[in-house]
Design brief:
globular; single chain; 5% strand; binds heme C; two-stranded antiparallel ribbon; 6 helices; little secondary structure
Length: 306
Amino acid sequence: MSFDMRIVSKPLFLVAAILALVLAIPSIALASGYNATETIVATNTAVYPVHGGYTSTTNKCKNCHAVHLATGTYVLTRGNSAAEACDVCHGIGGLPAAPEVVMNSYGHGLDTTETTNSITLYAPDDTTPTPYSVSQGSWGCDKCHSVHAAVTLIVKLAGFSSTKLLKADPNPGKSYYLWNPSLIDTSTRETTQNLTAWCSACHNANIGGHKDPKTVSLNGVDTTVYGHDTSVTAAATDAATGYALDVSPDNNINSGPQCEQCHALDDPGYSYPHSSSGPSLLKGVDSGKTNLDKVCVSCHNTSSLP
Ligand code: HEC
Ligand code: HEC
Ligand code: HEC
Ligand code: HEC
Ligand code: HEC
Ligand code: HEC
């Protein structure tokens, strides 16, 4: 496996759970309520062999749901929670045809202190009113992805080759600062908005110019805050040094970076935005965040700071 052991206890549990499944499936395949994993992709040629494209001639529901003989308590899947429902295929040692995706606490997974269902999870930096919130017990892959590829629920972002089953409206009911689900073409599901705009659906305060006021809840008190210029267009950088070319804040133009210029997109062995090697998805930052300047000096040439 490619993840080191700083990942939280959940993946360890998953490794055990998946090993148990992998060992169990071949021997009980005929008696099981699910399709045998080896037939999952082979029998279907649709765009999404597993996700979506369900008709009266396909046999896909049973890849994930067993009508009478389900082995998990979560909506007849093999899992006992939303977090476990995808692991039989996408977890470590899962189905080879499915990309391996595990969340860790530095990405979008829960850390070890977040273990009870009764505690509410908030998306950091979402604006009030109605910041994104969900019970920890129900946090899982389905909050960002629509597992059935429901055509009215998914979006194909600018620059993407497929929808990645991303939800068009991951933070329903929110009045977004930037992300606009109504700009999605209802027949193709395509939009001109990109991944950075989509992230801001739940992290509403993280986008915009540094003089744009946002209201967030800080320690339970609604507070007006401002953030580093962040735009949907990548900040231009010098090819040789990596420094941002225009770091002048005074021209009233937001030429700030996209999320993935500061948060790690290419963190080897990890998958953005699911998991990362450093806290807050920041590449090369240590667990205590005592070297956060590493992020800043990658773009700001310290010798030219005023
Ligand atoms: C790739 C796995 C997968 C396949 C294939 C699949 N499902 Fe699901 N299904 C899930 C998961 C995971 C959930 C729970 C997460 C969610 O609600 O988004 C779910 C939830 C559901 C629910 C509950 C919805 C609700 O309102 O909570 C129904 C009903 C359902 N599936 C029916 C089906 C049917 C019918 C098919 C085949 C036409 C199917 N599913 C195929 C994984 C799958
Ligand atoms: C916070 C939102 C979020 C959550 C939670 C989330 N994902 Fe994703 N996922 C994304 C985004 C965004 C992408 C597209 C990333 C890219 O291509 O740059 C993605 C991409 C993927 C892909 C495609 C990877 C590829 O190689 O093309 C898979 C598979 C996937 N996610 C599965 C999962 C599974 C399984 C879980 C739960 C363990 C999960 N995701 C949880 C946001 C999320
Ligand atoms: C039965 C096996 C199986 C289960 C369970 C399963 N997947 Fe997948 N998934 C696949 C396979 C196979 C692919 C690659 C082929 C395809 O795109 O359909 C895939 C692809 C994906 C992709 C990439 C789509 C793209 O556009 O590139 C995402 C995202 C994804 N799955 C999310 C999920 C989530 C979220 C869950 C749980 C709610 C889940 N999957 C459960 C088998 C599975
Ligand atoms: C469905 C809502 C949702 C979407 C969409 C979403 N996030 Fe998050 N994000 C969350 C939640 C909830 C948490 C808190 C997780 C926790 O506390 O375990 C979080 C945490 C984070 C963190 C902080 C991790 C830490 O430990 O400090 C970062 C950074 C982050 N998200 C970046 C992103 C990026 C980048 C995207 C787009 C690729 C994105 N998020 C999309 C809900 C979302
Ligand atoms: C200029 C670089 C930069 C850009 C651009 C950026 N971030 Fe961040 N982000 C950071 C740094 C650095 C931290 C760690 C802050 C700390 O620990 O005090 C952080 C922390 C976060 C957190 C954790 C909560 C917090 O504020 O500490 C979230 C959530 C987050 N970023 C989301 C996003 C999203 C979503 C985008 C794009 C819309 C984005 N960020 C764009 C640098 C950036
Ligand atoms: C990916 C490149 C990049 C990174 C990393 C980065 N910055 Fe910036 N920063 C910029 C750009 C580009 C601007 C100018 C934005 C504009 O003019 O609209 C800027 C502007 C600023 C400004 C002026 C106010 C503003 O938002 O325009 C401050 C202060 C600043 N950065 C501090 C930081 C700190 C502190 C860090 C580390 C946490 C950091 N930057 C990381 C690219 C970056």
